[in-house]
Amino acid sequence: MPEPVKKAEALAEAPAEAPAESAAEPQPAPAPEQTPAPPPAETPTVDQTAAPPPDAPPAEDGQPPDTRQDLTGLFTERPQSGEVTVGGNITFVAKVNAESLLKKPTIKWFKGKWMDLASKSGKHLQLKETYDRNSKVYTFEMQVIAAKANFAGGYRCEVSSRDKFDSCNFELTVHGDSTDGKEDSGELDFSALLKKRTVQVSSSEPDVDVWDILSAAPASEYQKIAFQYGITDLRGILHERYCHIYIIKNIKCYRPSSRYIFESVGNMRYLTINHCSLSDDAAYSCVVGEEKCTTELFVKEPPIQIVKNLEDQMVMKGERVELECEVSEEGANVKWEKDGVELTRDESFKYRFKKDGCKHVLIINEATKEDCGHYKVKTNGGESVAELLVQGELKAKDQAVFKCEVSDENVRGTWYKNGVEVKSDTRINITHIGRIHKLTIDEVKPEDEGDYTFVPDGHAFNLSAKLNFLDPPKIHLDCMGRTAESTIVVVAGNKLRLDVPITGDPAPTVIWTKGEKVVTEGDGRVHVETTKGHCVFTIEGAERQDEGVYSVVVRNPAGEDTADINVKVVDVPDPPLAVRVVSVGEESCIVQWDPPLYDGGQPIIGYVLERKKKKSYRWMRLNFDPYPETTYEAKRMIEGVAYEMRVYAVNGIGMSRHSLSSHPFVPVAPTSEPIGLCVDDISDTCISLKWRRPERIGSAELEGYGVEYCKEGSKCWSLSDSDPDEWLPATEGLTDRTALTIRGLTTGDKLQFRVRAHNMAGPSAPATLAQPVTIREIMQRPKIWLPRNLRQTLIRKVGDTVNLVIPFQGKPRPQVTWSKEGEPLKPPFASVRNSEVDTILFIRKTDRQHSGKYDLQVQIENVEDTASVMLQVVDLPGPPEALKIMDVWGFNVALEWKPPKDNGNCEISGYTIQKADKKTMEWFTVYEQYRRTNCVVSDLIMGNEYVFRVYAINLVGLSQDPCNTKDSAYIQKTGIAYKPPSHKDHDFSEAPKFTHPLVNRSVIAGYNATLSCSVRGIPKPKVTWYKNKMDISNEAKYRMLSKQGVLTLEIRKPCLFDGGVYTCKAVNASGEDIVECKLEVRRKYPAGRWVFILRKKMRIYLNIISESL
């Protein structure tokens, strides 16, 4: 088919404008459906990249959007054209500033003119939207995922907000393999959507040549004509079908794009590279068929020029130095040198290098004499030099020496100070030795400061230097030091202002510190104000943490001075701690507390107490003068009413905050004495007492009882409370119960006991015994209380645990003895544990030898009691003996046996008889719990031969082993004997045979191919594949599958070398079979012949002469 539009003439007339025009050209129109399909898009043809005619309108993607609004420039960042390879991802970003918008902007993404991409969002296309609240900028993103070749084309982004509108066009170029529109129509291929039209041209209408209509129509009508006649692909087929041009850069094949533009003018081919960069420095090749032409492109960086040079500087010693220059481009690399030596960042960070856009700065923090010299900055396009001079400073009473050297010894000159000639005197000495002129000033004074100049006689130039006078700083303050006399006292909450006079030249810097913290000159509560000659230290509203030693340091180049100022903050004390009521009475209580942790910097004068009823909100003060002690007795309270107490601390500054309230308490009187005190039990070392509650408890709760005792002959024997130290407490603390056992007493002691009830008011009057008690045991006969279950024989299985608990009584503690059949029990055999009220017999794991009679004896002096326990340990019985078949008749068998020798230490309760057919040897139970030693087994099957066995049963269970019959019982058959016929097994073996052979195939290189056949055979044959008679079973390129006799050989991405004869061989024990086929692998695309000629101009062109055109 001929070209849709004759573009060669247009390029010939205006070759310079061709690259710009070709970037916006439309796709060529396709032929009608009966014409052959166009070549793949990844091999661009000459005419596909040709420029449109001069009179043609811009391409579809280059037209402005058809909207009703006017463009207002809403975009702050527009989406840019991009390139991506097949299968790769690319993101287009658009940003809109919504600061001046009244509502959220609306954005739409289009491909071509009318295809809205919002409906295509999915696997390959994602639309995202974000909003930055700080900058008020909306960010819209269109992300193309796993790009396909048909995604390439023109796109448009439109944004609108009420009456404002903006639009932007951009291109997407996809590099790599692709197919024509008929084979692969992606989600973004609008041409594929046109194929769904159902309108068909009636056969009665005359045939129309669409190509003639497109040739006569302007380019703006191409889309309309294509839509009218159902054309879905506007690409054309070259007249020379096999004429293909490839542009290769470093082995990579490139397609036309906005950056790489291919042009065709007759037999000439041009390659234009826009925006050339360092990455374009490479070898370029043009391939036409088997012809190849190569040229090399060299790209250099533009030289970096110094726009603003360095400036000479003169600074004082210790000052900061910044040498600054400006270059022509941002991000350029520069090199700094001092006196020809390159400067680097050393360990002390003396030199720092700073970049700010096009500005480059060399920074020296503290200049010294060694930093004097010539500094140079270099780029690849220029350099700049500057000189740095560092001057020194002098202190008071130092010697200043100015020295210069001239070229001739006979040259004389004059020294000037601020333009006035300097004369020699006692302090100023002027000397001239050889070529050196020297001015010396002894004991420098402030009036010596100024500019000194040496002017040679008869010459029109001079040398200058400056003399700076420094006076060391001094702090003039009387209250310095850390002594008590120099301490500054301030009351908390008041303001402290301290004006410190300071002298020194130059004006010194002042630093206030407290510990390691520096006091700043900000607006804080503690701050410093520095003026000329004074420094004011201020504390607004002094607080406790402001107390301490403050250090002030004044410093200038001449020296420094320090002073310490001690500030003491006094305040009211902290509240007292741990207020508690230690005792209460009927109308009073005693309160104690602890002094406060912080006394406010002043001694505590005393305390003030307050009380209130628990249900009231009004506190009543108990004392108006400070009470000096920490224990106070409060009186005149109402019994039965709950009160609370709190305390204030008082010092010379004032009264503290109140303490925490004490626990609520109730003034109450003690209870009456307990009643009914008596002895409940007594032994050699302990006694048990019991009593009843007091008759009168009072309004407070009863806290407990206190039990005390004393020995006969002590002072307390008169039962008086005159010396309470003689009474010993029976327990630690109080007991809530009305009974108590006192242990650890001495046998034979004569003791008196008393009990007192305690409540909040304290102990009551004591309740005592009528007479003293002698600590001695009361005799009680021993008695064994044998449990009912142990009065019968106790039966246990072998391996069980025996734990017998037998209670007894007797006082004093009786002696317990266990024996078995007259022999005492020993620990390996059994364990015995005794207490005052019971005894335990424990056997961890019983055995047959533990069976027998166990005797228990409990004895106190000559009185004793005994009891016996029978223990029977049982086990499984042994097997029965002498099992015999006594008779066989009909379908019956008579059996007889003897009882087992070992009955398991218990009676045999029965037997279990089982039978089994000798063919299957499956045992079936005939009788269970059979008590006799003989039986008859009936209902046997004729023709079968049986064996029998018998188990013995006792209380534990079946015996472990049975007793089997030595002989078998055969049940005779009746009638004619049947002889079955002989049978010969069928041989199912079969030699391999291919039921479906391999078929010759022709495939395209790069696409997986499969060869299939089917085979049968018994047993399953072994299959081997061969290529050109070579075994390929172990090669990873081939994949061999076998399922239900169907054999498949898969060749992964075959190349031209994979063609040949493939053979499949099946072998088993019965034989073998072979089948083969021929596989042909074809190229992906046909090849052509090309010749390249390259020339170099301002823009780069590749001139291609095609011999086939």
Automatic annotation (TrEMBL):
Q: Which GO terms describe its cellular component?
A: M band; myosin filament
Q: Which PROSITE patterns match?
A: FN3 (PS50853), IG_LIKE (PS50835)
The UniProt similarity line reads:
Belongs to the immunoglobulin superfamily. MyBP family.
The Ig-like domain, residue ranges: 65-173, 302-429, 473-566, 782-870, 992-1080
* Composition skew (Low complexity), residue ranges: 11-26
Q: Which GO terms describe its molecular function?
A: actin binding; myosin heavy chain binding
Where is each Fibronectin type-III domain found?
575-671, 673-778, 879-974
Query: Quick check: keyword Phosphoprotein in the entry?
Result: yes
What are the boundaries of the region Disordered?
1-83
Gene3D superfamilies, sorted: Immunoglobulins
Q: Provide ranges: composition bias, Pro residues.
A: 27-42
Question: One Pfam family for this entry, by name?
Answer: fn3
One GO BP annotation here? cell adhesion
Q: Which gene encodes it?
A: MYBPC3
For bias type Basic and acidic residues, the affected ranges are: 1-10
Keywords assigned by UniProt? Actin-binding, Cell adhesion, Immunoglobulin domain, Muscle protein, Phosphoprotein, Repeat, Thick filament
Q: What is this protein called?
A: Myosin binding protein C3
Q: Which organism is it from?
A: Sparus aurata
